[in-house]
């Protein structure tokens, strides 16, 4: 394959990857706490290649709040995630619609256990209250503190379903706040995704024209060679 064809193939591959992120974002626009995925250009270190390649990263901007008044509904402000446990695996989530499971533990709607710093949070009977720093009270009695962390490398977040993410990178200090009685919408901007889709369409059309020009040039060259 010639350098020209390789460049065209890489460009098309980048467009397909970016289109995949746009499609995924649009499909999850109404998923509470969903973090939009972005395609981030990476410039290769070797001078022989000026082509851009793309990695994906999670957009950590806050989504809009929906006030529910629910006692166990919480939303995070600032870059950070609740730590939850699913089948023995520690995961991260922004989905803050919580409930009490059959064993009296605080859990997400998906059934993941909300973790405190001493394990799952056991909730006695009574009215729950959440402090801005993640402290959990039932009545006036403290029952623990939500474990909330920030991530040091968002590119290492991997979606595992039901609004949760696996993460294998360094952690950072969380500096946000907890809002009780609200849930966070997905941080997907419909207008922004529409613009990205239009840009992709225009770029794909440019690549298509480049393929046509290259094909015509090759056909002309072959015919000239054949005529000699």
From TrEMBL:
Q: Which UniProt keywords apply?
A: Bacterial flagellum, Cell projection, Cilium, Flagellum
Residues of the Flagellar basal-body/hook protein C-terminal domain: 179-223
Main localization category: other
Keyword Transmembrane attributed: no
A Pfam family the protein falls into? Flg_bbr_C
- Report the InterPro entries cross-referenced here: Flagellar_FlgE/F/G, Flg_bb/hook_C_dom, FlgE/F/G-like, LlgE_F_G-like_D1
**Transmembrane region(s):** none
What superkingdom does the record give? Bacteria
Enumerate the subcellular locations listed in this protein's record, separating them with semicolons: Bacterial flagellum basal body
Asked if the Swiss-Prot or TrEMBL record annotates the protein with the keyword S-adenosyl-L-methionine, the reply is: no
Flagellar hook protein FlgE/F/G-like D1 domain location = 75-136
Family note: Belongs to the flagella basal body rod proteins family.
- Which protein are we looking at? Flagellar hook-basal body protein
Which source organism? Lysobacter brunescens
